[in-house]
Amino acid sequence: MILNPLRILAELLQRRMLLAQLVKRDVLLRYRGAMFGVAWIFLSPLLMLAIFAFVFGQIFQARWPQTDSGIPFWMLLYSGLIAFNLFAETVSRSPTAVRSYPSYVKKIIFPVEILPVVPLGASLVHVGFNLLILVIVLLVMKSLHVSILLYPVLLLPLLFFSLGLAWFFAAWGVFIKDMTQIVPVFVQMLLFLSPVFYPVSALPQWLQPVYMYNPIGAVIEACRAAVLGIGIPWLPWVFAFVLSIAVFVLGQAFFRHSREEFADVL
Amino acid sequence: MSSDIAISIKNLTKTYRLFDHPGDRIKQALTFGRMKFHREFTALKDLSFEVRKGETVGIIGRNGSGKSTLLQLICGILKPTSGSVTVNGRISALLELGSGFNPEFTGRENIYFQGAIMGFSKAEMDAKVGDIIAFADIGEFIDQPVRTYSSGMFVRLAFAVAIHSDPDILLVDEALAVGDLAFQGRCLKKISEIRHNGGSVLLVTHAMEQVAHFCDRAVLLEKGRLTLEGNSADTLNFYLGSLNPQAEVDRARSSLEQYSFYNPKETRWGDGAAVIVDCKIIQDERVDPVSLLPGIFTEIRLHVIFYGNVHSPIYGLTLKSRDGAIIFTTNSQELLLANEPPKKQGDEVFVSFSFRPFLDSGEYFVSVGIVSSIGGRVVPHDRRYDVIKLNIAPHSAGAEPVANPAFRILSSL
Q: pTM above 0.90?
């Protein structure tokens, strides 16, 4: 059992060739056959953003509480949503990550533990395009702050947290088919329970620590602060990072422990 | 583990837990295994054997005897319930053809993907890809999606990739049975290359010829237990005897055993519908000479008795050098360019092969056999591998040995 997070990372890095190929396949296969092809990777977030602008900018005329930064509500919503979607895509797809590849488990010698990493890689590709759109729109609005360069770094805890959970759910997904139904529903619920549509400061006092110190909330808050160009809440972020590493290590250990039975079940 | 052992298996047992309902697995996990909701099935029981480096070992046995489970355990895909599997070196396995291939991607893309699975870098694969494509021999299809491939092309590609990964240990499950003769030839050449470089090969197959031809040893599994382990001829004979006790009785009628040229280490199998009961070697009117003179017409006359109806019998003969290399192989269909007439139970036939042994002095082996071809599938009735040991006398001055013994059929009555 490996409990050193650096060694787990090193082992994943050793497999970067294979990972890169799997992620490429995953992303390309999703758009293969579509008329606009890979252009959808850019088109769909753009379309989403346009709808946000219309609904929250025009219809609701929503304002972000307690700020007067000049950045409209829908852009702040978008900057948090990018981070949340990283988590959502990785975790929602994890229950089928191993389950849908029985031949990799049973018929060839394959490092099965990297299968749940593939959705993470694919969602990172999407994050990349989303960030590009974010930067361009902020630039047009003349509201771009240097601190946005920190955005990718600030995502780190969420990466580890999502992957740790993905390993848990991927293993459970092999044994319990219901996971493929349950997990996406929970992720959907978390979208509204996370500070994506509202800042933590808008919550009742007693709830705030729960929101601030969990990896999803901490990362979204930090990322949004980077976009706004205000002080990043480092303490909750560091705390969330430590928590995420713990989830990452435990998830990996659980996956390794249960993989011995995968071949018997699939 | 000593350094010349490639695979060491000790007291290996694999038990599957069978749950009737998926929920039962959760129930058992929730009680931390204190309550049992499953039945058990033991696929392998207390198995021990070793494979040395450079060795080719065949694994034989009926369906369900645990052969594939054993390969999966050696690969590390399954974990032993108890006992141990120790593997020394890098494994390349062909367990089920085409697994790990993505049908939507082209042959070339799949080659690179398989390479990545085996841990090769792009540069390493760039160096191999030419050889792999040449070996697979699928022409322009290499840049087409794999789903458009015929099954033969699929197999050749999968095999080409597995075999070019320079494995220390190559595991093959029933994969060689497909592909045409030319491809099989290439595979076997490559396999012997692997062996010469100190690699080991493990072959699971129902094609007994392959075991007889290529394996140094064979392991016989029966109901998850190792029943016999030994040189391939002994193991095969035991296995084939156990499969078909009736043929064993007929074999007793063979009178070849009395001759000086008879090789007691022959490998023999078949369903016994026709039996080679006798064989005569005649050269220059000398019957069963101690040694043959090179270059002089020689006749090998087989006496075949039919115990069942055989629609299109084919009589075959193969000449091999002492180290097992095939020098010449032929059969009645090839030589006569026609099918032999059908035979019914009780018929007796004498088939004579004649040839001129332009061969260097020394020992040679001859295999003979009677098979029939039903819809393209070969059914062996009586195959006797290496049944005759030929001694070629030193040739007189001036006579140059050549490789072609000029076979033809004299008569088949």
A: no
